[in-house]
Amino acid sequence: MRRAAAFLVLLLCLYWTRAQGESGGVTGNDITQTEVQSEILGVIATSDQTNITPDIWAELKELRDMAIKHSVELWKLEQENTAIQARLTASESNNAVLEWKMNASDKEVEELKRENTVLMARMKTSENVMEELKKENTDLQSRVTAFEDKSTVLEVRMNASETEVEELKRQNAVLETRMNTSENEVEELKRQNADRPKVAFSFGLTDDGQVGPFSTDITLKFSKVFTNFGQAYSPTTGHFTAPVRGVYYFSFTTVDNRKSVQSVVTLYHNDKRVLWNQNSNDEHGWNRVSNSLVLQLEKGDEVYMVLHGGYTVYDNSGNHSTFNGILLFPL
Fold it and tell me: Which residues, if any, are the signal sequence (predicted)?
C-alpha cells in the first residue's frame, strides 16, 4: 500500500512538473513543502485513508527532486534538440550547396578528363617528336664528332701549311732578292742588246720556176724577202755582208724538179768554198739539197750561194729553195 501511494505521488509530481515546464518552467524554490504535503494528503485520503509514516516525506522529497531534475534535463534536451534542428537545417543547406558544388566539380572533372585525353594525345605526339629529335640529335652528334675529327686533321694540316708558308715566304724573299738581281741583269742585257746590231734574214729564190743551166758557176740571187733585219743580205748581189764581228748561223735548201739529174750548190765564205753539196734523183724527179752551219765572221765578211755550171735549181710560189742566216751574238 505504501508503494502504491508513493507511485501515485510520483505520477502527480511528474504531471505537475510537466505542466509547469510547458507554462514557462519551475525551479526548486517554486514548490513549497506545504503544497506538496497538501497534495499528498489529498491523495492519501482518496487511497482508503491509509496512514503514512514520516519516512514517506523523505522519499517524496527525493522523488520531487528527481522530477525537477528530470524536468530540467528534459528542458535542456528540448533546447539541445532545437539547436540540433537548426544545425540540421543549416547542414541540409550546406549539403545542398555542397551537392551543387559536387555537381559542378563532377562537370569540371569530366572537362578535365576530356582535356587530359587531349593532353595525353598531345603528350604522345610530343614523345614521338622527342624520339625523332633524339634520333636527329644522335645523328647530328655523330656528324659533329666527324667534323671535329676533320677539324683536328685540318688544324694539323693548317699548322703544316703555315710552316710551309713561312718557309715559302723565306724562299720567296730569297727569290725576290734574286729576281731583283735578275731584273737588274735583264735591264742591263736589254741595254746591251739595244746597243747590239739585230741581224737576221730569210729569202726565197724566185717565183719563175727553173734557174739554169749555165755554162759557168753563178751566184744565186734569192729575191723573195721574208725577213731582212739589218739589211745585211742584198738580193741584187746575192751576198750577205756581216755588219759586225760575231758568230752567225746559216742554212739553205734547193730543189731541182727534173728527172734523172744531179744538183750541185756551194756555200762560200768570202772566196772560200765552205760547203759543197750534191744530190741526184731518179726518174721520179724532185731532187733536194739542204745543209746548215755556224760561222765566225769579221765585220765586212761575205757569205753567198753558188750554182755550179751545167746544173739547175727550181722554185715557185711554194718557196722550195730558201737561204737563211742570223747573228747569234757579236764578238
Answer: 1-21
Q: What is the C-alpha separation between 107 and 192, in angstroms, rounded?
A: 113
User: Measured between alpha carbons, how far is 278 from 265 in angstroms, rounded to an integer?
Assistant: 7
| Distance between CA atoms of residues 307 and 220, nearest Å | 6
Q: Is 318 helix (H, G, I), strand (E, B) or coil?
A: coil
Exposed, middle or buried: residue 83 (CB in 10 Å: 0-12, 13-18, 19+)? exposed
Nearest-CA neighbor of 22 among 98, 78, 96?
78
**Sign of the CA dihedral with 158 first, then 164, 169, and 175 last:** negative
Cβ–Cβ under 8 Å, residues 223 and 324: no
Calculate the alpha carbon distances from 193 to 186, 189, 327 in Å.
10, 6, 12
Distance in Å from the first CA to the final CA of the chain: 190
Q: What is the Cα Rg of the chain in Å? A: 78
Neighbours of 296 (CB within 10 A): 13
